[in-house]
Amino acid sequence: MTVDLGNLEASSEQEPYVRLMVCRTCKSIDELPPYSGPPEGDVLLQMTIERHGEEHVGLLINVGAIHWHSKTMRAAIIEQIQQGSSGLDVFGTAFYDTKMQFAEDAMTCFAVHNRPVGQCPEFRSEKKRLLPKTAQERKEAGLENPTESNATRIYLCDFCPVRVYNERKSREEKGMYK
Questions:
Q1: Within the chain, where are the H helices?
Q2: Tens-digit pLDDT profile for residues 6-59
Q3: CB-based contacts of 28: which residues, under 8 Å, 6+ apart?
Q4: What is the Rg, in whole angstroms, of the alpha carbon atoms belonging to the chain?
Q5: CB of 19 within 8 A of CB of 3?
Q6: Is there a contact between 123 and 176 (Cβ–Cβ < 8 Å)?
Q7: For residues 27 and 95, is the Cβ–Cβ distance under 8 A?
Q8: Inter-axis angle of helices 43-52 and 101-112, to 10 degrees?
């Protein structure tokens, strides 16, 4: 997938935002969490691009979180994206499906583990680590292998409800709820 990263400065550093990867080929919008590091460390973007394939063309947009999470504003944003792409959806079919793929995958995993109330047996295990298939490209660029890089320590569990259990447990241990 070719992704235009042109307008990433649209959102202020102080305002919470979400990133939208708009795929012009399959007419979908993937919602990604904020990221401010070097592009080669953006594991979630790399994996989302891999899911679309090389023949797809996309655009990455920063949108203020307050706007994106408002139903009326979200509809207006999607309409604006739609109007910016002439020729697509001329018959009024479902133009853009929005999805947060990593959260959906985490919820599927959560269900497979019988919706644990406490700790999940695979929480943040290597099996649940999200890694892009960019080892060769990273090697050619003189970067660490993704499996050895601390910058790529992102897990499917980071999008799971079990994460909240672990955050609360950690905060209790630090005495933050007293």
A1: 43-52, 65-68, 71-83, 101-112, 135-140, 162-173
A2: 444 444 456 889 999 998 888 889 999 898 888 778 889 988 888 888 888 888
A3: 22, 96, 97, 98, 99
A4: 18
A5: no
A6: no
A7: yes
A8: 90
The three-state secondary structure class of 57 is strand
Q: 19 phi and psi, to 5 degrees?
A: -105, 135
Q: Is the pTM for the entire model greater than 0.70?
A: no
* Per-residue tokens: 104: 């959906």
- Other CB atoms within 10 Å distance of the CB of residue 37: 9
Residue ranges of domains in the chain: 2-99, 101-173
| Cα–Cα dist 39/60, whole Å | 12
Using CA atoms, how far apart are residues 29 and 81, in angstroms rounded to an integer? 10
